[in-house]
Amino acid sequence: MPSLDDSTRGRILFGGDYNPEQWPEEIWLEDVRLMKQAGVNSVTLGVFSWATLEPRPGAREFGWLDRLMDLMHANGIGVVLATPTASPPPWMGSRHPETLPRDEQGQTVWWGSRQQFCPSSPTYRAYAAAITEDLAARYAGHPALTMWHINNEYCTHCWCDGTARHFRSWLRTKHGTLDALNEAWGTAFWSQRYDAWEEIIPPRRAQYMRNPAHVLDFKRFTSDALMECYTAERDIVSRHSPHIPVTTNFMPLWSGQDAWRWAEREDVVSVDIYPDPKDPHGGQYNAMIGDMTRSQARGPWVLMEQAAGPVNWRGVNHPKPRGLNRLWSLQAVARGADAVCYFQWRQSRQGAEKFHSGMLSHAGEAGRTFQETSRVGAEIARLGAQVTGTRITADIAVLHDWNSWWADQQDGRLSTHLDYADVVRAWHRALWESGRTTDFAHPEHDLTRYRLVVVPHLYLLTDTAIDGLLSYVRGGGTLVCGFLTGVADEDDRVRAGGMDARLRELLGIGTVHEWWPLDAGGTVECEGFLGTLWSEEFEPAGGEVVAAYKGGELDGLPAVVRNGRAWYVSTLPEPDALRALLSRIADDAGTRPVLTGLPDGVEAVRRGELLFLLNHGRAAVTVQVPGSRPELLTGGQVSGSLTLERHGVAVLGEAVS
Predict the structure, then answer these.
(1) Is 153 a catalytic residue?
(2) Helix then strand then coil, % of the chain, to nearest 5
(3) Which pLDDT band, with edges at 50, 70 and 90, does 423 fall under?
(4) Above 70 in pLDDT, residue 657?
(5) I want to staple 160 with a disulfide (CB 3.0 to 4.6 A). Which of 102, 281, 375, 492 is the partner?
């Protein structure tokens, strides 16, 4: 199977989406000149080019793309060639309205934007396969081609009648019989029992709350339906060019795709990351998505898109302060990226994204954005072969599962203030701020190589996952679980006692009497800290009470329980308290920070033999460094200490004796 190494060839890929069809051809030579000046060695072509490639049904206009592929190759720039299927041409919706998606209320989602396709539509799939077939046949052997990029940010949902038929077929495969489906969905509730497959529809707008198990299966189905579209195009390009790796770009921590399952079907795992420059914890978010993507890839990964400056889709779109683009780009490399790319190369002058930044902004080559991206390109080239293909070793895993997230979003949940992604981010932030590198893992993965496994919040856990956690702790691992974990099985059926009995025994807790969610902004006092968001009423059953609730209805009842190497935290401690608690547990488990004594806001990451130091603060800091080491970005030598400027980065080699 081809890999990312086949594309990078000992260099970090640097560049981004290039949309030359938006510009007259005389601009192309200027673009190439500036790309070479900026250190660009890779461009992604064709992502939104369907209407240009196929201006009418069956027509093929490849001449312009031929010239571009040749131009890129002549200038030493590789091409990640995209199938253009994320944005069907207007003629498809006009001639084939059955390809247009419908929303939960049955309203048609029209053309005029992008992603206006029903993933279950046979007509859409046929047109997508045809254009993909012709692209692959024409360019599979082109020397500029380094990677295939299928579609773009798969995110379409549809509730149409065609989707209903596809959903019923999926359900037949999953459940086998209607009796099994009725049992799994608990349709005895509210007289929802199905007597014929044809009665089942997608969970459209209803009079009141919809069956959560029905909704859960539809989310699983939607991820799978989109994955069918991806694999169909992947198989076409792989047949024509089995030596060229294939990817599609994930959106970061997006609920619509089970990225664990998708990653298994990719040669290369790639992601788009857009932290908010105004977010004081944007660097931690960047690190978290890098850790998650690296874990899905089981090694190096691709940062397919980021912004060189502002985006255009937030309420207020702030530019990146000086140095932040460089910091976050090199942070991605530190956390395993072998490609650092942007959307897009040249900022558009028309269309919905004309205020979304590009590597070459409206200010041109004299602009700060181009000057900064050029510096990034030069430094990434300098790191090159010393980084690509090298690995990151972590002895802590954060468990994350889309099925649990989907189940957690049900209408009838205990608190609308509970946001799964926010809880995961809070726990990762606590570990990141303590200087520890983490992987992410699926709850059914083999966890034996980790010293510590943390479960921020997995409401739904399968029997296989629970058995794995029990085996992990019995084998000597340390486990810490957050609140509302292990409550439901894979069909969203609440387990007896409010949590799986095996898990309760492992954690040393008794029956969960009540869950006590907190109001927005509310806190609950615990011994030594304040809890937020959540609290629970239960009694210990063999576990040691590490901290109890103080005051209120839960006064004296356990907030944090330890049972040997298994911990349970029934609230979300405030950030400092959560960091202190997880640091204590991590220390006891034998894990250590990458580097101790770091100033606040400084991140240390080891990738292979290299030590990356990144200053997320807005003031210069001095960092103590063990031994004398070469600094790869400047070519200098560091002994004892170094100064990191605002948003500064240093990459240190092995200590010299």
Answers:
(1) yes
(2) 35, 20, 45
(3) very high
(4) no
(5) 102
